[in-house]
Amino acid sequence: KVIAEKSAPLDGRPGRLLAAEGRNGDTAVRLHARFVVDGVRLYQVAATGAKGGVDQNGIETFLDSFKLAAR
């Protein structure tokens, strides 16, 4: 289930941030992802883990570390 979604351009390219929750068997899990479109390419970076078991600052640092090379 998507719980949050927002526009997140990266270096002038369109992008989105997404958070979703679900289950893996008996375990509640959460997904955080960044999507970026560059021409005909779609890039995706994602972090998943047990709900409440992943450090939010660490997730943001990881997603923000994604960069595209100069065109």
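Second entry:
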Amino acid sequence: RQVAFPAISAGVYGWPLADSARIGLQSAAQFLAAAPAESAEQMTIIFVPFGTSAAAVFQEVAAQLGLATR
């Protein structure tokens, strides 16, 4: 049970990258929190930012939110 979210357009067209990361990460965390524990433990949600600088922003926002990253 895996889903990947490519963040190709995150941070472009005037939408700040950090906002995009925060919204996506918070939504994923809320989804997992609402799922039954046995289901949530079997799920993997992967964010795929475009480039190393975008990946760093996603990691920074995840750390601010107290979310685990790999």
